[in-house]
Prior knowledge:
iron; 312 residues; 2-oxoglutarate and iron-dependent oxygenase domain-containing protein 3; binds fe (ii) ion
Amino acid sequence: MVQRRGKSSTPESSVIEKKIKRGNAQRQASAWRGSQTVLFVCVALAGCGIVGWLYLSQTDDITETLVSRSEVLSQPRIFTVQCSDDYENYKRFPGCTPQKCGRAVADNVVTREEAHTLKRLAERGLSLGGSDGGASILDLHSGALSMGKKFVNIYRYFGDQIRDIFSEEDFELYRDVRGRIQTLIAETFGLNSSHMYLTKPTFFSRINSTAPKTTHDEYWHPHVDKVTYGSFDYTSLLYLSDYGAEFGGGRFVFMDSNANRTVEPRAGRVSFFSSGSENLHRVEKVTWGTRYAITVSFTCDPEHAIANPALP
Ligand SMILES: O=C(O)CCC(=O)C(=O)O
Ligand SMILES: [Fe+2]
């Protein structure tokens, strides 16, 4: 049995706190909502009538499934989107800074068996703690683990006993998968993979339908990763469980101005995209079951690079 040491909040947790900050997410979503308001006024005043109404009902509803749970893609499915000007506010790095933006989904990069192994790793790690609300994270790099209404650092909290929970093979698999995802992103967006770096936060997430207890549990707010996390240039999500079989709700939604476009999670599915506001997104609320995923993110700025997670 692992003995718990005294509870403490970690400095790393502030990164996670930043991530889930509601105000931020709401600010980012306001541009999207703004366009809806304009249309609403248009409907009320000018009688744009049926067109405006159709637009409103369209953007309120899920309209398009980019990839469903039951499909198995033998090749990545790629959707190009025009880059936003977010990248203008940052230093440019040749061979990495997005010139081509978009989103893509691949089912042929991580096997379902590997996803299952990673899910078991996440289950073991998260069983040491977990949020009181519905969303818990485990960050193998910083050691941040949700606990109650806070975070602890597993490496400090559990010391050497963490080796009873995680093995070198677990970390090796994580590093291998991260490398494959990096290559995939580089090939898809025409980048030089050696100019891309892992950046933080990079974490496992476990989401269920328990009511939120703090803002850390509010994972469903629309947001732009580059705004929320700063250093992100490319975000990837590796899903570890199946939508519709292991959990309900919890689809990933790209919130485009003309439609919502969803990706249905499937164990072993990698979804990735350029992190600017061309890819405003949210996660639907999970209505039943448990959803596991890993967020693995990349930056072009070597100053924001982090090393691969390693057992202490
Ligand atoms: O789990 C997901 O599908 C998306 C999570 C997300 O948007 C994020 O970590 O920024
Ligand atoms: Fe995100």
